[in-house]
Amino acid sequence: MGPEDTDAAQTLHRDLLALLPAARVLLAERDDLARRLEVARRDPLTGLPARAAFTAAAEQLLATANAPAVLMVDLVDFKAVNDTHGHEAGDAVLAVTGRRLAGWAGPGAVVGRLGGDEFAAVLDTDPAGLPGRIAALRGLLEQPADHHGRQLAVGSSIGAATLTDHPTRDLSVLLHAADLAMYADKGRGRRGRRRHSPTAA
């Protein structure tokens, strides 16, 4: 290797060293973007898909399911848990709710947290057996959640929409129908359906 080659190699080496800070910045920005995308895709509190990711997965399932059902779930008296025991306790209730809902829905279903104390699920299930499954879900969600020795209980309002009553596979239409059914269920609760009050045993 002659002097000119040595000089060229040294120049290249210096240029590469000069590029290292910029490369580190680009890698950090890439990692930060990946984290942001993951946060946008997954609800960090429950680990469930957030709204956008839920919508994409739910639409895929709706397109292929034999008997799809869309559920909307809202927690009753959740605000009282936050007000009485603090937001950390409320977060614990949401996390437990997410795990219970996902476990109830089972493999192949799509479950997401849409925001606040509102959840949604899409599953392929026999419409005739859906009322029984919803009753089981209600009982499951109303079991107290343990938080540092405190037993925190909330109620639940659940609405469902199936192709039997709504012959469409449009997710927005079915979510709206399930949402209306959920609020009707909440109204029945106000008129006397048993509701758990937040407690601290």
Automatic annotation (TrEMBL):
Recorded superkingdom: Bacteria
Coiled coil spans: none
Gene3D superfamilies, alphabetized: 3.30.70.270
PROSITE patterns given in the database record: GGDEF (PS50887)
Pfam families in the record: GGDEF (PF00990)
Domain GGDEF intervals: 66-198
InterPro entries: Biofilm_reg_signaling, GGDEF_dom, Nucleotide_cyclase, Rev_trsase/Diguanyl_cyclase
Name of the molecule in the record: GGDEF domain-containing protein
Organism phylogeny: Bacteria, Bacillati, Actinomycetota, Actinomycetes, Kitasatosporales
